[in-house]
Every structure is written in C-alpha cells, then in structure tokens.
Design brief:
Helix content of chain A: 25-40%
Number of helices of chain B: 12
GO cellular component, one term (chain A): GPI-anchor transamidase complex
Radius of gyration of chain A: 25 Å
Protein name (chain A): GPI-anchor transamidase
Keywords (chain A): GPI-anchor biosynthesis, Membrane, Signal, Transmembrane, Transmembrane helix
Structural class of chain B: alpha/beta
Number of strands of chain B: 16
Strand order of the largest sheet of chain B: 3-2-1-4-6-5
Pathway (chain A): Glycolipid biosynthesis; glycosylphosphatidylinositol-anchor biosynthesis
Largest sheet of chain A: 7 strands, mixed
Number of helices of chain A: 10
Number of strands of chain A: 13
Oligomer: heterodimer
Organism (chain A): Linum tenue
Chain lengths: 401, 613
C-alpha cells in the first residue's frame, strides 16, 4: 500500500498558510510519537545487534536439499553482515563429506553448480547427532551446562533481533528432528515465551521451510514475534529442481525464492520486509506462503530486511577523551532509513480459503476435527476419557464371569 | 420307587433334595438331611477363602504407597511467596538512596553582599530550587536521591563568624564530616588542580563510607579573573563556583543546578541509564578485551607494551568500577585485519575520510576474530576495545562528523559491544625495503593518548559522558546498577516461580533451592544497605543477587521437554496394574458376598433348629 503522507503534507503546504502547516506538522509528529510510544515495551530498548539461528533437522543423503537450504541462508546472512560469532548453525548431517557426494567438500544449491556453499569460512556450531530437540531448546532458552563454550550459546540481549530459520520434514504442529524425535509447536511456543520473559530478544523472525509449516506457529503468543512459513496446513512444500549430476534435489522452492530476493540486495540496501513477504508467488511455490504478523507491532513496510538478515550496529561517536574540561555533547547518531514505499508487485501471497471437492469420509473427518478445535479444554476431555476406562473395564469383566 | 431317606453329607450335596427331611422323626433335632443346601448349612462357613483373597488385596493396598513413593518427583521447596513478594516490592517502591549535600559560602562578608547572609534562608532557597529541578524529572525513579536528601549551608567569612544551618540530627553524619570553619584559607583560584587538592584535604574524605556520600559545592567570592562566575567540578565529590563580586542569591540557582545535574544525575538530563548502557554480564563479570589491529602488516606493524599500561592506567579504573562489576582484562595483537567500509581521499583535509554513515559497517567481523576469549564464561559480557592501524593506502584515516569537522578522537562506540579507535602512524610512508618490516613498538605518549580515548569510550559504554572524571560519577553508577540488578533479580525470580509452578512434574534440585534462598538474602541485604546509604556494598550485594537468580533460572535441569505429564505416567502404569487390581478387587468382593450368604444360611439353620427344639 502506498504511503500517502508526503503527498498530503505537500498538498496541504500549498493550500494553507505557514502557521497552519506548523500546527498540522506538530500534531502529526505528536500522534506518530504517541503511536510509537503506545507500542510494546520493545520500542524503548535500542536495537543493538542481530543474531541468526539456522537449523537443518534432516539426516540422510536424500535430504541434501535441506542442508543446501540452510547453507545458502548462512551464506546470505554472512554476506549481509552478521558475523560468525552471532550465528548458530546447526546441521544434522554432513553432506559435503558424505561418501555418496560426487563432489567432495562441496555443496551446491543449483544444478549449474554456480556456488559452492561449503567453500570458505563455514563454522558449524552443532553438527550431526548434536542437533536434537533438547539442544535446540537449550540454545533458545539459554540453559546450557556450564562447560558449553560461548560459540555454542545464543548470547543475545534485550536489544537483539533474532532470525530463526528451520528446515526439514514437518507436519501438523510438529517438525521432525533426525528422523527420531519431534519438536512440537507447544515446545517452540514455550521456549519463545521463556525467551521473552528473560528479555533474550527484542524482535524475532521465524522462517520455516517444511511441509505444513504454518501449523508450527499455532501456539505462539509472545509479542514481538514475526513468523513466515512456506506452506499452510494440508499443503506440502516442494523442492525446486533436481540436479542429475549430484543425484538429488538441491534446493527447496521457498528458500530458492528467498535467496533470489536477497541476491539482488547488498549491505547498504533497505528493502522492506513486506516486499520480501509479497515476493512469494503461490504458483511458483506450489504452496501458499503464510506469514503471521498479529504479534508484531511495527508496520512491515517500515522494517528493512537488514533488521533481521543483515547487521547494523548502532554507533555513537566518542566526542572527547578522558580529560578534565567538559565539552558540548554531540547528538546521538541515528541511522536514517528511507522506507521503500513504492510497492508495485502484482504478485501476492495472501492465503485463500480453498474449498476443495472432498469425499464424504474426508468431510466427516474434517468436521470432527473442527468440532474438536472448538472444545475449550482438551486436557479435561482427555482426563474424562481416562476415567471412563474404569467403568468400561468393570463392565467387561463382570460380563465375562 | 419309595423315597429313600438318605443322610446328606455335611457339605452341600448337589443332589440334595428339599423334602428329604420329612421322613425323619420330628423328635430328633433336625438332621442334616432336612437341610436344603441352597438356603441352609449346618456349619459355620470357613474363613480360608476369605483370608486368601483378602490377603492378596491387602498386599496390593500395602504396596501402593511404596509404588507412589518410588514414582514421586523430588522438588526442592522454593519460597514462592517470598519470590513473588520481592518482585512486587521492587516494582512498587523504587529504591531511593540517601544523599547529603553541603554548600559553603567563602569570603562573603557583609560589605560585598549587602547584608549578613543567613544560612537558614540560603538553605531554604537552595532547597526550593533543587526541588523545582528534581520535579522536572521523574522523582520516584529508582536509584535517585529522591526526596530524602539533606542539605547544610555554611557561611564562612574569614576569621570572624562562621554560621551554619542546623542539619545535624538524624542523618547519621558524624561531626567531623562536615565543613570545619576556617579550613579553607586563601585559594589560588587560577590553578584548578591546586584548588581541587585544597578542597579535598579540607573536606576530609574519610567519613564518606558511613551514612551516604557527602557532596559539597563551595562558592568563593574572591578576586579571580574578571570574567563571570566559573563553575568547575573537581575529581572528588566537590565542585566550586568562583568569581569576583558574586551575589550570593544569584549563585543559588547555579549551586542547585550543580547539585541536581552533576551529583544527583551524573551529568545526564534524566537520571536513568537505559539497559543498553549496562554492559555487565549476568554473573556480574565483564571482560575488557583490547585488540591492536594491523590492517596490512606488509606496510608496517605495531606492537604495544600493554602490561605497563595495565598497571598504570587501567587499574585505577578497574578499582573504581569494582562494586559494579568484576572486571578482567586481556589483550591481543592481530594482523591482516582490513575494515569492511570504504574511505575516500579528500584533498582539502589531506587525509582519507570515512564518515559517520560508514561507522556501522566499519567492523569487519569476517576478518576480525575478536571473540576468542578464554577468560569469559558463558554469561560474562565481553567489551571489545579495538585500536585500528590503517594500511598504507588509507593512511591517514580520519573520521568526519556530519557537521564537516574532523573528529578529535577518531573513535566511536557501539553500545553493548565495545569501542573502536583509529590511530594513524606518525608518518604514512610505506615501507619499501626488502623482507618484512620490523616490528615497531608504539611510543608511550601515543599509547597514553590512545588510552585516554579508550577510557572515555569505557565511560560512554557505561552511560556516562566520556570526559567525566569525578568520583561522583561512580556513585551514580553504583546507584543505577543496584536498581537495575535488583529489578532484574526480582523479575527473574518471579519468572522462575511461575515457570516452576506451571510444570508440576519437573524435578527441582537442591542447588536451585539454595541459589534462590541466597539470592533472596542478597537482595534483602542490598535493600538494607541502600537505605542506610552504603552505595558500594549495596551494588555488590545486588550484583550477587542478580547472578544467583540468573544461575537458578538458567539451571540446565529446568527443561520442560524432559519431564512427562501426569497423563503419560498414568498411561505407562495403568496397563500393568489396572486389570490385575480389578480382578483382585472383584474376587475379594465375590468372596465377601459368598461368605455373607453362607453365614446367612447357617443362621437360618440355627434358627430352624431352635424353633424345632
């Protein structure tokens, strides 16, 4: 949506006298300040640094594309400025040195092998069997054993923006780790809630590229969280293309189009998040990318992508050295951002309520499911069910005598 | 087929007929043959079956408490009430510290000031000014002096009268803390250092540990230079206003301003320091990591004698910041560390220029491997201080401010990260000899200047102005950090209590219980110390409270994913015990019912016998 404010101000300036302009400008300023101040408490802390937690949860050679996804995003995030010491990279298996890899020590995300993702300066923090649900939750909540080194900890503070990217196989409200365990949506929501209570982030962007990824966000309630998923409930996320030389699919569609967006950017750019989110085309993705903004107070058009994907340090000039006479204070430097307000993308990714033609069985099952969802307290229903076991048992035993 | 009377056996006979008893003589007692086994029996029912079944049932019942005990979860008892009370208390009543102020009017005799100065009047007017100034900012801010500050005024007019306003009672000041009449003789107002020293020796610093700190402002009516009144702040807890022909009333405003802005608020407009200027780690430690970066060692490379600097320049600062954080220092020299932003040659200024817009991109984290500290634990904060020596094709490198002027310090900070300073070598002539260039040791004067800038940056990182040198700044830091630490420990303990109560089946180790207990004790101690006025002690105990609370909250055993819900336990154990116990129960009930029936039969037979007899 175009921002009409500058046009309105200029037209008013032409029409009214300078006094009216001053009054209107001051009113607008006050209301914008008030609007900002009435936002969440995260507005008051300064944005100090960016962190990235990139997780690949699949093992085995045929899940090559998940590793390539994660490594591509790692490369992007490093290129845009986040240093290794603020990236936690978790790879569940080693594709580069896998015995089935025809190109040893090389990982590609493209069939033309344009880019070796494993080329230089890759620092993997959690590898192989260390990537478990427990370790992942420990990284998020910060509850490590005392011997865990600093490079494996998420040392964010209350001014950090964190990017959390997860890819692998998933389903309805879960994400599969290592083919043996699952991360459930309530575990993730609980970890985010504890992070928020301990002020471990100012804003959090969760990107998930799995099947039915949007269900992973169902239980999120903490403010300051932005979430984007590659597909909705009931949809799969597909891989982009197959590399016949390596022998497996090398990248997923959602990540491929995300990377295509970022390859056009450099460190000094300020494309906004809404442009990123609107760049996903459901026809190309073969699924509907879903993003959730109800927990996030700021307007997506004003948030540059480098807020999460790059690294912008807040800097303050040192005006004087440690000496005896006072000097005048220079005003604090703030980074002035000009938001990209011209959104002229015709492609949208708004989720649509698709009514499909279903067979009667599916209809019954889905109506049951929707009824279950309306039940308020599922725990008590389960307890009633357990208690009902006893009379059933008694009755059956009595009948058998 | 005559009916044959047969004598039925004592136990029930399956073929026992009902009417077999009729053939018997009625005179004899009812014989067993008269008894219908279905309704009567002649002997009491045995207890063996009952005993058997009930013993099995009893063993199950006896075993149940043992089973319950073995699946019980050990939870160390946490004082939830106290934890919630602490967090509520800290939020509702912000911590206020007692502050003591003193103002001395020197050399104001009645000739120059048009009347005898009354200390009490002066005191009330200064107080009103100060309350006016403090009410502009938030009064009830945590860590401020609040409303309970004391003020005493002394008018010292040379050898003659020295009048004081009465403010001795109740504030715990011992008599030798306040200004002694005639202690300040003639002051050479031209030399700031000498005045500072004279004031320090006159105002006897040794009493300041008890009952709060004493801040003094001296107004000297002397014959200084002809310009207007000058206000200066010394290195210790005092300042002075000097000038000639001063009017006492006119100085009241400036004095109040000095008290409030400098001593109460530490030189900032508002009194509070934001969270991003409190770079103390959760365990109360900070590591200062100093790095000398040689961008291109092929041109030249420098080394520094860090140990000498550590002893002379750093140690005083570390000592001053001791109550706030436990500081450790490390240093390194790195090579081949170019920066990642670009600079351009400016002919008029004669150097390569980078502007403030490039500052966020200056730190090249790909090549600068700064975070290799082994001194820092998991929750310690590291502050990086980087001295950057540019390469020959960017030498000299200067920072240009938005106003167009060149920065004097050539440095900048990033809050919570550290500071960077660019140092240009003396001559920018590229080394053109063969072989690698020799290692050049930095000259001590250069190093001294660099360190002045770095210490200014350290002050900036802690929220002070980079040139504040007076000890009062450390007081302000102590107060603010006490506040922040107490607030943080309160919220942490509150979160912990909510978390633990929401997971009723999570094991809570003894260690966590101990940490919580000690944290609560330390928080209590910090509050008591603050109310008495011991700034450093309250800062230290609040730091300990925060570190213990964080240890308890981040204990590695509090992971909800490891503990199963009650439904899970029920689902695991019920297939073992539920069917078996049901059968045992039913058997016991059945045996009991049978016993009752047999008993009733026996009673009936007995009754019949009695009736027949």
């Amino acid at each position: 949506m175009r921002s009409k404010l500058p046009d309105a101000a200029s037209s008013r300036k032409m029409a009214a006298s300078s006094a009216v302009v001053a009054i209107l400008a001051s009113i607008w300023l006050c209301s914008s300040i008030a609007a900002d101040a009435s936002g969440s408490s995260s507005e008051t802390t300064m944005h100090t640094n960016n962190w990235a937690v990139l997780v690949c949860t699949s093992r085995f050679w045929f899940n090559y594309r998940h590793m390539a996804n994660t490594l591509s995003l790692y490369r992007t995030v490093k290129r845009l400025g986040i240093p290794d010491e603020r990236i936690i990279l978790m790879l569940a298996d080693d594709m580069a040195c896998n015995s089935r890899n025809k190109y040893p020590a090389q990982v590609f995300n493209n069939e033309n092998h344009w880019l070796n993702l494993y080329g230089d300066n890759v620092e993997v923090d959690y590898r192989g069997y260390e990537v478990t649900v427990e370790n992942f939750l420990r990284v998020l909540t910060g509850r490590h054993e005392s011997a865990v080194p600093r490079s494996k900890r998420l040392l964010s503070d209350e001014g950090s923006h964190i990017l959390l990217y997860m890819t692998g196989h998933g389903g309805d409200e879960f994400l599969k780790f290592q083919d043996s365990e699952e991360l459930q949506s309530h575990d993730l929501a609980d970890a985010v809630k504890q992070m928020k209570e301990k002020h471990r982030f100012k804003e959090l962007l969760i990107m998930v590229d799995t099947c039915q990824a949007a269900t992973l966000f169902n239980q999120l309630h903490s403010p300051g969280v932005l979430a984007i998923a590659s597909s909705m409930k009931g949809e799969n996320s597909y891989s982009h293309h197959l590399d016949s030389d390596v022998g497996v699919s090398v990248v997923d569609r959602f990540t491929f189009y995300t990377l295509a967006f970022f390859e056009r950017l450099n460190m000094y750019d300020n494309a906004s998040l809404s442009r990123l989110f609107n760049s996903y085309d459901p026809n190309l993705l073969m699924s509907n990318a879903y993003y959730r903004t109800d927990l996030y107070q700021r307007n997506l058009q004003e948030v540059p992508v480098t807020n999460f994907f790059g690294s912008v340090m807040e800097t303050v000039h040192t005006d004087s050295a440690y000496r005896a006479f006072p000097q005048k204070n220079t005003p604090r430097e703030t980074r002035i951002r000009t938001g990209n307000t011209a959104e002229d993308d015709s492609r949208r990714s708004i989720l649509t309520d698709m009514t499909k033609a279903e067979c009667p069985f599916t209809r019954i099952v889905s109506s049951l499911e929707s009824k279950m969802e309306t039940v308020g307290n599922l725990d008590s229903l389960v307890n009633y069910g357990l208690v009902m076991i006893l009379p059933v048992l008694v009755v059956s035993v009595w009948l058998s005598t | 087929m005559a009916e044959i009377a047969e004598s039925p056996s004592t136990t029930e006979h399956p073929l026992g007929t009902v009417g077999a008893s009729r053939s018997k003589a009625s005179s004899s007692a009812l014989r067993e043959s008269d008894v219908d086994p279905k309704t009567m029996r002649t002997t009491t029912p045995g207890l063996k079956r009952l005993f058997l079944t009930f013993s099995v049932l009893l063993s199950f019942l006896l075993g149940f408490p043992f089973l319950w005990k073995t699946v019980e979860i050990y939870r160390s008892p946490l004082p939830f009430g106290d934890m919630d009370a602490l967090s509520k208390q800290i939020e509702s009543s912000p911590l206020q510290f007692p502050c003591h102020f003193q103002s001395v009017f020197l050399n104001f005799d009645s000739r120059s000031s048009g009347g005898i100065l009354d200390p009490r009047e002066l005191r009330s007017s200064i107080l009103s000014e100060m309350t006016k100034l403090t009410s502009q900012t938030l009064e009830r801010q945590c860590g401020s002096c609040g409303e309970n500050f004391t003020l005493s005024v002394v008018v010292d007019s040379g050898d003659r009268a020295c009048r004081q306003s009465d403010e001795r009672h109740g504030n715990g000041l011992t008599p030798n803390c306040s200004y002694k009449c005639g202690a300040l003789g003639a002051l050479n107002l031209g030399d700031g250092e000498a005045v500072d020293e004279a004031l320090r020796s006159a105002l006897d610093e040794s009493c300041s540990d008890y009952g709060g700190k004493l801040y003094t402002v001296v107004v000297v009516n002397g014959d200084g230079a002809g310009e207007g009144p000058k206000a200066l702040v010394g290195k210790h807890r005092h300042g002075w206003i000097s000038g000639r022909e001063l009017d006492a009333e006119a100085m009241i405003g400036r004095m109040a301003e000095m008290f409030v802005k400098i001593f109460m608020n530490g030189g900032r407009e508002d009194g509070a320091i934001h969270g991003e200027f409190m770079p103390v780690g959760a365990d109360g430690r900070v590591v200062l990591s100093f790095s000398l970066l040689n961008a291109n060692p092929d041109d030249w490379f420098y080394d520094w004698d860090f140990q000498k600097l550590d002893d002379t320049l750093l140690n005083p600062v570390i000592e001053a910041l001791k109550p706030i954080a436990n500081i450790s220092v490390e240093s390194q020299v790195l090579y081949h560390t170019p920066k990642s932003s670009f600079s351009y040659w400016d002919e008029s200024l004669g150097s390569y220029i980078f502007s403030t817009k490039d500052l966020p991109f200056f730190v090249n984290s790909n090549e600068w491997h700064l975070d290799t500290s082994v001194a820092a634990g998991g929750r310690t904060k590291i502050l990086q201080f980087v001295v950057y020596v540019p390469s020959a094709n960017e030498c000299p490198l200067s920072l240009q401010l938005p106003s167009g002027e060149i920065s004097k310090t050539n440095g900048f900070i990033s809050p919570m990260w550290g500071g960077v300073m660019v140092w240009n070598p003396q001559s920018c002539i590229k080394y053109s000899g063969s072989g690698p260039p020799a290692r050049l040791l930095m000259h001590p004067d250069d190093l001294h200047r660099i360190f002045e800038v770095l210490m200014g940056q350290l002050r900036q990182l802690f929220g002070l102005k980079s040139d504040s040198i007076y000890v009062g700044a450390a007081d302000v830091l102590s107060r603010q950090h006490t506040c922040f630490n107490l607030h943080s420990s309160g919220t942490t303990l509150g979160s912990l209590s909510r978390l633990v109560q929401s997971l009723p089946r999570m094991i809570i180790k003894d260690e966590i219980g101990k940490q919580v207990k000690f944290s609560l004790e330390a928080a209590q101690l910090a509050q008591t110390n603050a109310s008495v006025g011991l700034y450093e002690a309250s800062a230290a105990s609040s730091r300990q409270a925060r570190s213990l609370a964080e240890d308890a909250f981040f204990h590695p055993s509090i992971m909800s994913v490891s503990y199963f819900s009650f439904e899970h336990c029920f689902a695991v154990y019920s297939p073992f015990f539920l069917p078996v116990s049901l059968h045992v129960l039913l058997a016991a009930l059945r045996e009991w019912r049978r016993y009752k029936q047999e008993k009733a039969k026996y009673v009936r037979w007995k009754v019949k016998q009695v009736k027949a007899a």
